Every structure is written in C-alpha cells, then in structure tokens.
Amino acid sequence: VQLQASGGGLVQAGGSLRLSCVASGFTVSNYYMSWIRQAPGKEVEWVASIYTDTHYKDSVKGRFTISKDNAKNTLYLQMNNLKPEDTAEYYCAYGRSLPRDNGNWLEYDYWGQGTQVTVSS
C-alpha cells in the first residue's frame, strides 16, 4: 500500500494550491479517503473526507474541495483563499469509517508521506 501526496508549496494568503495523492495497493473508491494535516508542535488535524459524500472541517468549508478520480485511483484537495493558519504538512489517509477529528493518528488505517503547505501573510 502506498499513498504519495504532492502539490504543496509556498503561497501568499488568499492564494490557491491543489494537492494530489496517488494511491496504490488498494482501491480508493472502497474506503473513506481523507486529507489530514499537522502543524509543527500541534496534534494531527482532520481536514476533509470523501466516500459517497464529502465532509469538511468547519474552518475549511467553502474554501477547500475534496474530490477523487476513481479511474486514476487519485485523491485531490483544491485549496482556495488560503490562510496562514492553513500552514502544515498535509497527508492523505484512508480508513473504513468517517474519522473523528480528535488528534489521533489511529483514526486512520494508513497514511502516506506528506506535502508541505506554507501560507505567508
């Protein structure tokens, strides 16, 4: 199983980034796929999930859009109107149920390497 995230970078506040996560070894359509993030010195934070529906953390609703391409077995996160508080390492993850935003990595069955998002003010 592999999850490879990419697309991070440095952007000014108000800017946009699109993260991608290519999955291998399993089928993304069979699981809750999530984006999670961790800022230095802070707990892991759930951002968004997709299965048959989409779910978002309140602080990103209206700014972030999670989507997936089942044919490409790839997960995406379109991030618009980025804010400095969005700065973190972003990871894609999967699990068998909608994860709780409780700062626990064990909410997820597997997560891959992250991609750094830095938003300057």
Description:
By secondary structure, the protein is an all-beta fold. Helix content is 0%, strand content 50%. It contains no helices and 11 strands. The protein has strands spanning 2-6, 9-12, 17-24, 32-38, 45-50, 54-56, 64-69, 74-79, 88-95, 110-111, 115-120. The strands form 2 sheets. Strands 2, 4, 5, 6, 9, 10 and 11 form a 7-stranded mixed beta sheet that branches. Strands 1-3-8-7 form a 4-stranded antiparallel beta sheet, with no helix packed on it. The radius of gyration is 13 Å and the shape is globular. The model has no long low-confidence stretch (mean pLDDT 96).
Number of strands: 11
Q: State the helical fraction.
A: under 10%
Write the element-wise H/E pattern from the N-terminal end onward: EEEEEEEEEEE
| General shape | globular
Strand content: over 45%
Radius of gyration: 13 Å
What would the average pLDDT be, to the nearest integer?
96
What's the SSE blueprint?
Blueprint: E1 2-6, E2 9-12, E3 17-24, E4 32-38, E5 45-50, E6 54-56, E7 64-69, E8 74-79, E9 88-95, E10 110-111, E11 115-120
Parallel strand pairs: 2-11
Antiparallel strand pairs: 1-3, 3-8, 4-5, 4-9, 5-6, 7-8, 9-10, 9-11
Which features does this protein show?
121 residues, mainly beta, 7-stranded mixed sheet, globular
Concise structural overview:
The protein has no helices and eleven strands. It has strands at residues 2-6, 9-12, 17-24, 32-38, 45-50, 54-56, 64-69, 74-79, 88-95, 110-111, 115-120.
